[in-house]
Amino acid sequence: MSKQKLSKRIGVIQPSLTIGISAKAKELRSKGVSVTNFAAGEPDFDTPDNIKYAAIKSIVNGNTKYTPAGGMNELRDAVVEKERGRNGLEYKRENICISVGAKHALFNIASVMLDEGDEIIIPSPYWVTYEAIAMYVGAKPVIVETKEENGFIPTIDDLERVITDKTKMILINNPSNPTGATYSEEQLKDIAKLAEKHDIWIISDEIYEDIVFDGYKPISIASLSDYAKEKTLVVNGVSKTYSMTGWRIGYTCGDKDVIAAMIKLQSQSTTNPTSIAQDAAIEALLGPKDSVEKMRSAFEERRDYIVAELNKIDGITCHNPKGAFYVFPNVSSFYGNKFNGNDINGSMDFATLLLESEHVALVPGIAFGADEFVRISFATGLEEIKEGVRRIKNFVSKIS
Ligand SMILES: Cc1ncc(COP(=O)(O)O)c(C=O)c1O
Hints:
Layout: H1 8-11, H2 17-30, E1 36-37, H3 49-60, H4 73-87, E2 96-99, H5 102-113, E3 119-124, H6 128-136, E4 140-145, H7 156-161, E5 167-173, H8 185-198, E6 201-205, H9 226-231, E7 232-237, E8 250-253, H10 256-267, H11 275-286, H12 290-312, E9 326-327, E10 337-339, E11 342-344, H13 347-358, E12 360-361, E13 363-364, E14 374-377, H14 382-397
Parallel strand pairs: 1-12, 3-4, 3-5, 5-6, 6-7
Antiparallel strand pairs: 2-8, 7-8, 9-14, 10-11, 13-14
The chain binds pyridoxal-5'-phosphate (PLP).
């Protein structure tokens, strides 16, 4: 009998559905089909010029060699400064690890902290990658469902109910992908208290902290108690705030032993994040912020439009997100019906038929553990959003 080609470990995860759908939309577009792409997880804006020039300068100045595995000292110090100014969090360089995007940071945290059978609590709907990473390292993702009427925020009782002696950590994503849900200070304090009571670590994914609406002020859970400061790993990066998804710079702030372990892992895997992108990230974190506000307010204008329009469509209800660039409408009233003779039995059918018939790409909620919903990214121009909404209206009007 021949030996199994692939490891059992790689068999437990699926490719990222969001990246897959976005690629399918791009492929259709390249064939000349007019596709409305609501699947993208990245801002449509260009990276601001000051950041691009910092990268050019970096190349010209010869910063083209290996850097320390945990990132350049200047960038680690820039993160220290940013977190102090932004969240009032006092870190030292030894508390910071620069990784190849926030996704890589999360992967490394899981790799250095989770053993086989350890449990990690993940509120649902959740970003696809959390579950995959936990499973890949042999840990058990424990999914806690949230309700639309609670703004997709988990209740403390629901979280406490699933805690066992194997619970190692809880993951908070504020603002959330895919729902745009945001936590209040009180809710974060309650989670910090719960974590302290049961001696649980917290991962706080704050990648959307600057894309917030209606004056919402995101607070890092790490700033809410001494315990939370000590036991939270804050994950962030430059991808979303500065429209730098392709540059691949993310970071973790937290316990120095965890950070040292992550750096050790990086030293034996990726070595360092790209030197040039690190210079660009320094400019992003410490440079002028006017482009950030321009992008944020454009997102808010789009959010206002799309939420209002989707709620006008019979059969669709759409929660109003206070952060990130996604809406997460409930389309389950169409399930059990047909489109052109095809059954719509869930979000995957809804998304597939919509893409095939109206060429609108969005992500089925099932990818985030919530089949009643679909995720629409409004990280695309207002004209495209208007056209996409028109097509969705057209699609659902033909469902019978
Ligand atoms: C919630 C969340 N965390 C992390 C990431 C990863 O960001 P990065 O591009 O820095 O890897 C994403 C990207 O989609 C995200 O939505």
